[in-house]
Amino acid sequence: MTEAILLVGGQGTRLRPVTVNTPKPMVPAAGVPFLAHQIARAAAAGVTHIVMATCYLAEVFEPYFGDGSDFGIKLEYVVEDEPLGTGGAIRNAAQRLTGGPDAPVLVFNGDILTGLDIAGLVESHQAAEADVSLHLVRVEDPRAFGLVPTDADGRVLAFTEKPQTPEEIVTDQINAGCYVFRRSVIDSIPAGRPVSVERETFPGLLASGAKLHGVTEDTYWLDLGKPESFVQASADLVRGIVSSPAVPGPRGESLVLPGAEVAEGAKLSGGTVVGAGARIGAGAVVQGSIVLEGAIIGADTNVSASLIGARASVGTRTVLDGAVIGDGAVVGADNELRAGARVWCEAELPSASVRFSSDR
C-alpha cells in the first residue's frame, strides 16, 4: 500500500477571478475538476489512501469526491484553520496516515500537471534508501523556481529557492513539487505552526546529514499557477499530450460535455472544452479554451486561449485572446479583450466598450 498527502490549501490568487468561488484544484480542466486528474493518476500508480490537506474553501472538496471509492481509493480530509505552509500542511495531514516510520509517503501539490511515473518515483526512493526523494525537472529559465543540484548518484547537494543572481544558477534542475518522504521524517516537522519544506525542512535535513535523493525525469510538467498555464493544461489533456484516466471522453481537438449546445457552423479546436449546459453560437470560433458550465458564447465570436467562467455570457462578434471571464460576468457584443485581460465575476461590460486591454 502507498499512502499520499495531496496539498490543496492555496488560494489561487493568480487565477482570480476564476478562484473567487472555486479553489484552484476544483476549477474544471478537460471536463472535470483538475484534482480529479491527479487523484486518478495516483490511483492508477498504486496509491490506495490519500489524505487531502485543505484550507481555502475547504468545504467544497468532500461533497464532490466523497470517500474516494469512485476512484478505487480511500480519501480523507484534513482542514487547516490557518494556512500552515507546505511543511506545516504535510505535518498536519500526517495524523491520518497509517503506515509505520519507514513507510514511503507520496506528497504532491494540487496545482501541478505532470506525466511523472509515480510508481517509479516511489520505487527509486526505496531503492536509494532515501529519507526524502524529490521529483526534479529541467527548465530553460529556472529563476522562478527552486534549484536542486545533485551529484552523479542523484544525491541532493543544495537548495537555492528562486535564485536572484547568475552565480546562484548552478543547475537547470528544479523542484517539481512531488516528493516521497520516509514517514518518520514527516513526524519530525514542527507541528502547529507554518513551515516551508522548500525553505526550512529540506535545507535543515540536508544540513543534518539526511539522505535526499533527486529523480530527474524528462516528462511533461506544467505549473498551473497562471491562467494561461491552466488553459494550456486543459487543452493538453483533451488532446492527449498528457494522459489522465479522468478525461470524460475521447482525446481530440475538442471535448463537448453532455447538455452543451454547439450551433451549426461553429468551430472548436485546439483542445477546447465546452461545459455542460454551455451554448456556442453559430459562426463562433473557439480555439484552445475552457468554456465552463452554463456559459454562452455568442454568434461570430472569436475565442482563443481563454477561460470563460460558469454562466458567463460573451456577446456576438467579440474577440477574446488570452482573457479570463469570471463566473456570471456579461461581456457585451463587439468588444476585444486580449493578453491577460480579466473581467470580474458578475461584472457587466457594455457592448463596444473595450477594444484592447492587458494586465501585463
Automatic annotation (TrEMBL):
<comment type="similarity">
    <text>Belongs to the transferase hexapeptide repeat family.</text>
</comment>
<dbReference type="InterPro" id="IPR050486">
    <property type="entry name" value="Mannose-1P_guanyltransferase"/>
</dbReference>
<dbReference type="Pfam" id="PF25087">
    <property type="entry name" value="GMPPB_C"/>
</dbReference>
<protein>
    <submittedName>
        <fullName>GDP-mannose pyrophosphorylase</fullName>
    </submittedName>
</protein>
<dbReference type="Pfam" id="PF00483">
    <property type="entry name" value="NTP_transferase"/>
</dbReference>
<feature type="domain" description="Mannose-1-phosphate guanyltransferase C-terminal">
    <location>
        <begin position="252"/>
        <end position="332"/>
    </location>
</feature>
<dbReference type="InterPro" id="IPR056729">
    <property type="entry name" value="GMPPB_C"/>
</dbReference>
<dbReference type="InterPro" id="IPR029044">
    <property type="entry name" value="Nucleotide-diphossugar_trans"/>
</dbReference>
<dbReference type="InterPro" id="IPR005835">
    <property type="entry name" value="NTP_transferase_dom"/>
</dbReference>
<dbReference type="InterPro" id="IPR011004">
    <property type="entry name" value="Trimer_LpxA-like_sf"/>
</dbReference>
<feature type="domain" description="Nucleotidyl transferase">
    <location>
        <begin position="4"/>
        <end position="237"/>
    </location>
</feature>
